[in-house]
Design brief:
The chain has 2 domains: 104 residues, Glutaredoxin (3-Layer(aba) Sandwich), CATH 3.40.30.10; 32 residues, no CATH class. The protein has 7 helices and 2 strands; from the N terminus they run ααααααββα. A two-stranded antiparallel ribbon has the order 1-2. Helix 2 runs antiparallel to helix 3, helix 2 crosses helix 5 and helix 4 crosses helix 5. The longest helix is centred in the middle third of the chain and has 14 residues. The radius of gyration is 17 Å and the shape is globular. It starts with a helix and ends with a helix.
Length: 138
């Protein structure tokens, strides 16, 4: 799927919830953002960080691979941006990402989001609540 098609689909799905997507031809290298998310998780601020990260990418079309942007997001939610960068640079969270990658390979995940339920069922992509209910009732 092209980036343009992805944003067209997101815009259609978001419209009913009054969510606007910027549309962008930018696909960021998210490695640093994933590492920064691990730092935020460690500090109990994962959801705040994640929400802002998604907002600046999908709504503002900004490059979430930019460390200065990641620092700005961290600071805005009360995280120590210098400590975060130090932890990213010293490889503190690389093993977390490697473990997640191995788990994704084990479950043959090839797109996001993918939800694994009870190590048995996979729900791939943005699905309806009914899809979740169906799997959870099994």
């Amino acid at each position: 799927m092209s980036v343009e098609n992805m944003f067209n689909n997101l815009s259609k799905m978001g419209k009913i919830f009054d969510i606007t997507f910027s549309g962008t031809d930018l696909i960021s290298n998210t490695h640093s953002a994933l590492l920064a998310s691990e730092y935020a998780k460690e500090k109990g601020k994962f959801h705040e960080f994640h929400d802002k990260l998604f907002f600046v990418y999908f709504n503002e079309g900004r490059n979430i691979g930019d460390v200065e942007l990641l620092k700005s997001i961290a600071e805005s939610i009360g995280l120590n941006e210098e400590e975060m960068v130090k932890r990213i640079e010293d490889g503190s969270y690389e093993s977390n990402l490697a473990q997640a990658k191995n788990l994704a390979l084990q479950y043959e995940v090839n797109s996001t989001p993918t939800f694994i339920i009870n190590d048995k069922y996979a729900i791939v992509g943005a699905q309806s609540i009914e899809s979740f209910k169906k799997i959870l009732s099994k």
